[in-house]
Each structure stands twice: as C-alpha cells, then as structure tokens.
Amino acid sequence: MARVVVTGGLGFIGSRVVRELASDYEVVVVDDCSRAKVEVGEVECSVMRVSVLDYEALLDALTGAEAVLHLAALIDVEESLREPLKYHEVNVTGTLNVLLASVERGVGRVVYASSAAVYGEPRRLPVSEDHPAEPLSVYGATKLAGEQYCRVFSRVHGLDVTVLRIFNVYGGEWLEYSGVISSFARRLARNEPLIIYGDGSQTRDFVYVDDVAKSFRAALAAPPGYTVYNVGTGKPTSVKELAELMMELSGRHVGVIYKPKRPGDIRHSYADIGKIERELGWSPKIPLREGLEEVVKHFVKADERS
Length: 306
Prior knowledge:
Blueprint: E1 3-7, H1 12-21, E2 26-31, E3 46-49, H2 55-62, E4 67-70, H3 77-82, H4 84-104, E5 109-115, H5 138-157, E6 160-166, E7 168-170, H6 180-189, E8 194-197, E9 203-204, E10 206-208, H7 209-219, E11 226-231, E12 237-238, H8 239-250, E13 256-259, H9 274-280, H10 288-305
Parallel strand pairs: 1-2, 1-4, 2-3, 4-5, 5-6, 6-11, 7-10, 8-13
Antiparallel strand pairs: 9-12
C-alpha cells in the first residue's frame, strides 16, 4: 500500500482528505495541532505532531512516502494583513521545507493546496488557470509564492507537482474556518441578523469540502511535471442569494445588516473547471442547496435540539 503524507491533516480540508484516502493508502498525518479543531474520525492513519517549519522532523515524516499532499497553512485573509511575517514563515518557508524534504527523501509527487486568492480581482470570468495572478492579500501572495517554489522544484529536481487552486470551500463540522457561509451559520445559530459587506451582489464559487477532498485523490494521478488546476463548481452565487437560501433552509428569517465593503474584497469570482474535468475526470457532485442543508443541520438545527 502506497504511503502518502498529508500535512495539515487535522485541518478543515486536510481531515476530509485523510478520510478520503485512508482506505486505499497508508496515510501519515503531519500537523502541529496549533489550530486543529477536528479529528480524522475512525480511519486508519498515523498522526505525527510535526510543524512544517521543523525540517529535521519533516525528513523523518516523509521517509518512505510516495506522495505528499501539502495543506498545512495559515488561511485567514484579514489576519494575513495584520501578521504578514507569520504568514510568510508558515505558508512560504513551510512550503519550501516540504519541497526540500520531498526531494531529499525521494518523494515522487507533491500536491500543493493553493487558492483562488492568487488571482486577485478577475479580469475575465470564469477564471481559468492561465488568468494573470495578481493577489490582493498577503495570504494570496504567500500561496502564489508557494506555487513558484513548486514550479522551480519541478523544473530543477524533476519533482511531479500538482497545484490545486481551491475556490470557496464550505461544509463539514468546522465553523472556525473563515468564510461567509461559516459566518452566516454562526449568526443563524444565535438568531442574529446576517452581516453582508457591500451590497450583496458580489459572487463567489462555493464548493463542498467532500468534493474538494476527492480532487486531491484525483491529483495523485495527474500528468507528470508541473500542473495547475482550479477546484470549484464553475457556478457563481451572490452573497445576497446565499443569505436568503440559508435563512430559508434554517427557517430563521433573521434579516440582513449591510455594512461597507471591506478593503481588498473581490467583486466577482467563479472558476473555469474545464481543465480538471478533462484531464483528471474530477467534477463536483454536491449542489449548493444540498451542501447548505448539511451545514444548517449541523449548526442551526442542532442548536434547536439542544
């Protein structure tokens, strides 16, 4: 059974990736547990409490691995603007450590969790992988820097690297994850009005976390060399539409408070997913309404039962 290391494997997406792979791979979770809020569940895997900033410990963790799925990162856009040095250290130096350790340990493939934040404000829609990368946040800049290191290591060392530019992920049992759906769910659970920054017409591409986890499985079979794929649904949803749908599903019509647009907020964004569909055979399976029903069931309906 092939050995696969998942960095950040106790995080929001990483824990779902571990569950997705555990039946077919020997999975090793690498996580410093500093922000982990979930467990991987009753799946067979080993967990190593290791930071991606600890190079020697990474070398031990990657021994015998055929692939590394690198998801360990700091992910809060607003926090990245307040603490840029911390984000550079974890997201950029940490990625460089993973790449160096992968080469030293003879790992064949790295799958790097990047973000749609690398695109910045889209010049054209839907956003394809050849769209200019012009991030508007420190977080986006760190993910793009990680991509550039991945490209260099692929060219210089022959490492196969697959980059997944993930759009707006939601779902699961994780409300600490920053994002509008998490914010709405928290406020609905407390019967508080939903807060929208701007006029609510801004659009996002919301993709369910289990679909994202399956994209990591697909990425293990990507073509050799350096490849980049968008992971989304290809369908835009406005924030106002999202608020109305979540209130409908929860049965809590708490109303909406509009606040001024935040600096750096992107107006419209949704993915062109044609490349990953053609080359890897991956496509999202869970419609937004179905995914939101699960979110509401976990956090709003659970509140009613308590």
